[in-house]
Design a protein that fits this description.
Length: about 500
């Protein structure tokens, strides 16, 4: 079994999703529990990978290799290192919470809803584990279909517009990546991702490849100015869709920068690092200011996600004397993991209130603490984490990136640090208006505190946020050697 752990992690949720769709389309109760079982088993496999992962080893671990399309030298090649392995664990962890989150809320097409989430989990894990470029591309594209359906079928009023916008943005970006991968294949006759790391490329070619990959992964992150699909998608997506979209899907963009752009086109990355830092700072500061004026809670947290992901792209492109900064890159990965917990928690909290009041507008709330004190306490913790309070996971990654920025680009560090102030501004402003004050709405007056199911989800996320905030070394120790290896690869010129 140990030789096939990655395949089990990828294909278990896909198989469970298919069985749920085929066998339990008429039995909503069985569909829910069977999906939950599939999510738990998948998480168990990813937890075994995390446990047995050797943090001192540079090489890819748990590798699987089998020919897929021999005529084109395309293989079913899987493996994880310190950069990809935490995301596989995070992906499967969030899926359990998402399935639980939809237990009482989703009333129609229950089997299809859960099946889509499970299949998407498998596709996302496949993207993180793929060592063959075409295999990565297939998984990368496949995850679009479930998310398109989740937004389009179970979304709010403008769900069709949001779903189409999400689909087109991502598809156009990824087609450019496909062209880049085919070009690289023509150069060395292989789709093995690691073979591209050794391929000599001129600065002109590297720049073109950089742009192609950038368009694909920057849309996923999303980076300014390619971000406009996210504030459209989030408000329309169901709670579970928003949780997965923010917690997992955005991370594939950051992962793409680390796995593809930096090692394949290192010289172009160095040349264009100034542009990337500038775009990241615009995302951090400007988008943070945009979040301040939002009236819709989901839109506010969506803009907050873009601002926080700006830290990720900033950390990935902080060069000094042609070398990446260790603090910054490790901070970027830590920030991605932390954002997975915090954003999932924030969207779930908004979902809890939406299920009771059926409104996302901040103005329709007020005095929630008088009716839901337990919920208000959890919401406060996650709001603090979103603002980057020390002791929560939200602080760890941002602090590490700021340390890296101080060491490499002090001006960037000042602007990056501003987000801690702006983040506190928009998060606490929302919290104050929603939770405190007098109860003015009849809907709020009728609210009940969290159910046992909601309490379990909130408690699990709270533990994750606090543990990672207090002891980030739990994850940092796993990624350190792989990050050092990546930095040494990027330092070598291909010219």
């Amino acid at each position: 079994m140990m030789n096939y752990l990655l395949s089990l992690t990828i294909w278990t949720p896909i198989v469970f999703g298919f069985i749920t769709l085929v066998l339990f389309s008429k039995n909503d109760c069985m569909a829910r529990y069977f999906s939950l079982l599939g999510a738990i088993i998948s998480f168990a496999f990813s937890a075994i990978i995390f446990h047995y992962f050797d943090a001192n080893q540079v090489a890819m671990q748990f590798q699987e290799l089998a020919p897929w399309i021999p005529s084109l030298n395309i293989n079913y090649h899987l493996g994880v290192d310190g950069i990809s392995m935490p995301f596989v664990l995070l992906n499967n962890f969030v899926t359990i919470l998402v399935v639980l989150a939809g237990f009482k809320v989703i009333k129609h097409q229950v089997a299809l809803y859960n099946a889509m989430f499970l299949m998407m989990t498998g596709f996302i894990s496949g993207s993180f584990c793929s060592l063959d470029a075409i295999l990565f591309y297939v998984f990368f594209e496949a995850m679009l279909i479930p998310m398109f359906l989740l937004i389009g079928v179970w979304g709010s009023t403008n769900r069709v517009y949001a779903a189409i916008k999400f689909f087109l943005y991502t598809l156009i970006g990824s087609l450019l990546m496909l062209v880049a991968l085919i070009y690289l294949f023509m150069q060395n006759g292989s789709f093995e991702i690691f073979s591209y790391y050794r391929l000599p490329l001129t600065i002109g070619v590297q720049t073109m490849l950089f742009i192609a990959f950038f368009m694909s992964f920057a849309v996923k992150v999303p980076m300014w100015p390619l971000h406009t699909w996210l504030p459209a998608a989030h408000p329309e997506a169901p709670t579970g869709g928003s949780m997965v979209l923010a917690a997992i899907t955005l991370k594939i963009g950051g992962y793409g920068f680390l796995r593809f752009i930096l090692p394949i086109v290192p010289d172009a990355a160095r040349e264009l690092s100034g542009v990337m830092v500038a775009l990241s700072l615009i995302a951090i500061v400007y988008i943070g200011l945009v979040a301040l004026v939002q009236k819709d809670m989901k839109k506010l947290v969506a803009y907050s996600s873009i601002s926080h992901m700006g830290f990720v792209t900033l950390g990935c492109f902080l060069f000094a004397s042609g070398t990446l900064n260790t603090w910054a890159v490790e901070g970027a990965i830590t920030q991605m993991i932390s954002h997975g917990f915090v954003s999932a928690a924030m969207f779930f909290c908004i979902g809890v209130m939406y299920d009771r009041v059926h409104s996302r507008n901040i103005a329709d709330y007020g005095g929630v603490v008088t009716k839901m004190p337990i919920f208000a306490a959890f919401f406060m913790l996650f709001s603090m984490a979103n603002a980057g309070l020390p002791g929560t996971s939200g602080f760890a990654g941002e602090f590490m990136v700021i340390i890296g920025a101080v060491q490499t680009n002090f001006v960037a560090a000042i602007f990056a640090a501003l987000t801690l102030i702006i983040g506190a501004g928009y998060t606490l402003w929302m919290y104050k208006r929603v939770v405190f004050g007098e109860v003015t709405s009849s809907h709020v007056a009728e609210m009940d505190d969290v159910s046992s199911r909601e309490f379990i989800i909130l408690a699990v996320l709270a533990v994750a946020v606090i543990v990672m905030g207090v002891y980030p070394q739990l994850f940092v120790a796993k990624i350190h050697v792989s990050v050092q290896h990546l930095i040494s690869q990027v330092a070598i010129s291909k010219l």
